[in-house]
Amino acid sequence: MAQTRKPELIYVVEDEAAIARLIADTLEKFSYRTELFRTAEAFFHGLRHQVPDLVVLDLGLPDMDGMAVLQQLRRKHTCGLLVVTGRADTHDRVMGLELGADDYVVKPFEPRELIARVRSILRRYPGQVTLPADPAQRIAEFAGWRFEPGSNTLVSPGGQQETLSTAEAQLLGVLLAHPNHILTREQLLEGRDVSALDRSIDLRISRLRRRFEENPQHAKLIKTVYGAGYLLAATVTWT
Q1: Alpha-carbon distance values, 47 to 11, 50, 54, 79, 159 (Å)
Q2: pLDDT band at 87 (very low <50, low <70, confident <90, very high)
Q3: Closest C-alpha to 103, from 90, 89, 84, 87
Q4: CA 106, CA 121: separation in Å to the nearest integer?
Q5: Which part of the chain engages DNA, per the record (predicted)?
Q6: What fold, for 9-122?
Q7: Please, are residues 186 and 194 in contact by the beta-carbon 8 Å criterion?
């Protein structure tokens, strides 16, 4: 079964109703799906039900500081993040980017600027992919390689087959599910405590790189993003 995509889902977190409606209307004109949230509490409740492709986040929410919302979002999720702020202070905008925002726009902004930034961010993220229900039937193709999670089989571009260990296969599966996306060690461990296993992740990454004959100092497929985590730099097709 080939991958299928839905129009991207964007959460708009903005307490000013007129601005929230303007953002949503602009996004919907370009065929994006939207949901509106007026408070941080409502936003986090929405996240428990579904994680969007991108969040448009106003920093001036009534019930929680926007920077704290940003940090909490980034600790748990890896969707796109566009900050909307009325703050003219450059320090706030820089801090937002350092805490994990992909980009920002300053109020007032032109709708076409919003769409341009949204498109730019979404190009960095894989979007939502519908996979076959049976994991044994899923096959990932990327950079000439082929991975079959049902049997932990990795096939090289030249047709050579290897069987990965369970730990390596689980790690590769997480990377393949989020290509071109920085994943923290916590995310690679899928929520397990990272404190005792920090070096374990680095070791598994190193072993995977050797499978792909990557030089750890100049890795091109599984990249180290210093201070953030790891990124699989490839387009992934699931069938």
Answers
A1: 9, 5, 11, 11, 41
A2: low
A3: 84
A4: 16
A5: 137-234
A6: Rossmann fold (3.40.50)
A7: yes
Domain regions of the chain by residue span: 9-122, 135-238
Please write the tens of the pLDDT for every residue from 34-45.
Answer: 999 999 999 999
Say what the pTM is: 0.57
Using the structure block, give the residue that is written with the tokens 């387009």. Answer: 235
Q: How far is CA 53 from the centre of its chain?
A: 8
- Burial of 194: CB neighbours in 10 Å, binned 0-12, 13-18, 19+: middle
37, two tokens: 């949230």
Q: Where residue 31 falls among pLDDT bands split at 50, 70, 90? A: very high
Listed residue (130, 166, 128, 154) closest to 221, CA to CA:
154
Q: What is the pLDDT of residues 207-218, one digit of tens each?
A: 899 999 777 678
pLDDT tens, residue by residue, 96-152:
887 888 888 988 889 999 999 999 888 776 554 444 555 555 789 999 999 998 889
Instruction: Give yes or no for a contact between 92 and 99, defined as CB atoms under 8 angstroms apart.
Output: no
Architecture of the domain spanning 135-238: Orthogonal Bundle (1.10)
Contact 61, 41 (CB under 8 A): no
d(CA 128, CA 133): 15
Nearest-Å Rg of the Cα atoms of the chain is 19
pLDDT for the residue numbered 39: 97
Q: Do the Cβ atoms of 83 and 74 come closer than 8 Å? A: no
Indicate if the pLDDT at residue 58 is higher than 80: yes
Q: How far apart are the first and last CA of the chain?
A: 5
Positive/negative CA dihedral, 55, 57, 61, 66? positive
- Do the domains spanning 9-122 and 135-238 agree at the CATH topology level? no
